[in-house]
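Lab meeting, action items carried over

1. Structure of the two-component assembly. Owner: GW. Status: complete.
Input record:
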Amino acid sequence: QVQLVQSGAEVREPGASVKVSCKASGYTFITYDINWVRQASGQGLEWVGRVNPNSGDTNHAQKFRGRVTLTRDTSITTAYLELSSLTSEDSAVYYCARGRNYFDPWGQGTLVTVSS
Amino acid sequence: DIQMTQSPSTLSASVGDGVTITCRASQSISTWVAWYQQKPGKAPKLLISKASSLQSGVPSRFSGSGSGTEFTLTISSLQPDDVATYYCQYYNTYPFTFGPGTKVDI
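Predicted assembly:
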């Protein structure tokens, strides 16, 4: 079955970077975009960006410009989200999700906590 | 950017009731809307794509409609398992955007 499995929870200090992975299985990795969506505690969903695993092309929300790097390694069917210059406002659960437009399925989520 | 709004923000109904959630877009977006269900502590689950296309395995009591700027998600007969927060999503051009969510309880 199609599955996205994400890396474990991370704790970072303000100003640091974090890299989250998303391992895909059960389908041909290069045929679907991987999107990243985050959710702060008790809040709604916020689209971060996407990577096309075939071409490596990326798009991201304007608010993350200059801080987000979306990559993939097709040899191990894994996508990555790296976010730099972290602040407390980046504390959230980060989800990866498959799809060029709507998202299905989603990974289990990775909690990123930014705290000194 | 396309802004999505939802109403109501919370909704309480009885088992067996029909409930409707409305999602509005800041400009016309054809039928480029998906609906998700999120239960506490879980990842969202896709229910409907392209405004009205029910995903495989989703109970038929869920339905979606609308086009342009106004969209609705309807649960025809609310069940205890439907307690969740529901989000609409715009997709077609970047950035994709979500509505703020509607919390449904019994």
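2. GW to write a short summary for the group page. Key points so far: Chain A touches chain B at residues 35, 37, 44-47, 50, 59-62, 95, 97, 101-109 (CB under 8 Å). Residues 30 and 54 of chain A are 5 Å apart (CA to CA).
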